[in-house]
Amino acid sequence: MQGPRGQQNPGDNIHETVGAYALGILDDAEATAFEAHLATCEWCGQQLDELAGMEPMLAALADLPAAQGTPAIGESLSARPSPRLAERLVDEVSQRRAVKRRRGMYLVAAAAALIIGGPLTVMAVSGGDGGTKTPAAMATSPAKAAFQTMTDKVTATDPKTSVKATVAVEPKDWGTHAVLQLSNVKGPLKCSLIAVGKNGERETVTSWSVPDWGYGIPGATTEQAKNPLYVHGGAAFKPNQIDHFEVMTFDGKQLVQVKA
């Protein structure tokens, strides 16, 4: 077991006693001396925290039945292991714990990549980031993929604003999943998709921003402006409880209305 960096480790280095102390195999004088050292040694304190629980593990082993013709496991553990053997056991446990910690960090990093990558993928499909879209990014957009598989769709174009919208819906146990395909809208704007119930109640399904170049603009010279916007969200209404959908700007202007 290695001591703290930058410190020599002679054979009687007190730092090496942490494993034997964790296993409870020091005599009273040795334990007292180590505890005095522990009060001022942060490294040994960290090692002791990592090794907590080893003594109960060995005690559990002592209760296991022995194979025929061999001494009972309890008998084999009745003699205290040497401090050097204890250190080797401690090293192995510490190494395995370190591997588990590294794996945990990798999982956290992978999850963060998925969380960050999801919105970026959606922006690539809609042209929201101004970057180059790839076929792979377009194929993995959750909103666009859902829109392509949903069959219940209604389209409308507002005669004044010329904004075109198609809303696809599907029932869920919790209400309605709705996907909006929006075209011929220029920014800058902040908008929301509103579900209006037959009882007059209004629920915001989702919100987004429209950049200067817009979405789904006919004859546009850039890809991001040519592509329509795909956004999705949910409402507590059941599909048969919705009268219509409205695409509204944050300042209260209706861009288009779509019957449910």
From TrEMBL:
Keywords: Membrane, Transcription, Transcription regulation, Transmembrane, Transmembrane helix. Residues 14-44 form the Putative zinc-finger domain. It holds the Pfam family zf-HC2. This is RNA polymerase subunit sigma. It comes from the Bacteria. InterPro entries: Anti_sigma_zinc_sf, Znf_put. The chain crosses the membrane at residues 104-125.
